[in-house]
# Entry
Amino acid sequence: MGAESPETDGPRLIAKELQLEVSSKQRTLHFHGESMRPFLVEGDQVVVEPVEWDRIRLGDVVTYRYLDRFPTRRVVRKTDEALLLWCENWPDRTFKAARADVLGHAVARRRGDAWLTASDLAWKLARLRARLRWRLRHTRRVTLPRTLRRARRAPAKVLRMVGLLPPLGGK
Amino acid sequence: MMAPIQKHYRVVDANVAWRVADKEAVLLHADSSAYFGLNQTGTLLWAQLAEHPLTLDQLTGWAWARFPDAPAALPEEIADFVDRLVEYDLLESADTAEAVASRSNAGEETPPWEAPVVERFGELEKLILSGE
# Structure
């Protein structure tokens, strides 16, 4: 069976979130999947620390609650109430996390015997590289096409303004 | 004059994380990944112990003030509760002469007394983070 009774599902989920709070180099968390490759790969050991909303920066890797899972993804946009997240190895998809669901940010990673921490240059470069990749991709797929669409409409708009074309809507 | 040496109980902060949801606490023992639930009375007692170390007498005194209608078995029920917490390595005891001012109960809602209970739910496996 393996299914938990409804009475213990709530406490179990809370306890899992507490596991995040107490993670440390001695109590690491296991990363699963390939979506964050190359920064995080299957089997990496990760330390996640609670973080205040104001201290979350673009490029951070954050963990949030989603049902009974704990997705861990990179921040590419931030508003007052939510984060837009992205996985380096799934470049076509983005995800949204509400402020209340964000549990912490990754501060260290162990792969084999090697530790990488948020203060290391390689960590900072990975953050920068991911941000640039996201920005370039976003520009190519969203910003540039939108600008071109506007540019194509611009001559007609000018002609309408000087009265050489009838206004839109037939007025 | 020196205060008499008494056994104080305190939360093992380095090894216990906890959170209250719906007035009942969930506790995680970080090293073993065992997790526990406290009922409402247990949660109130735990919150006292988390605030500062207390002797059994101090904790019982606080409970009498908070639950004036509690049954006469209150001291034994609290002692059993504390014993269980120590057994689970959630509380530790130390002999100390440290004097602790008891906290006021003013303005706090008082639920009916029920024997404090700690229930061990089980152990968690290592937490898995996923990008997928």
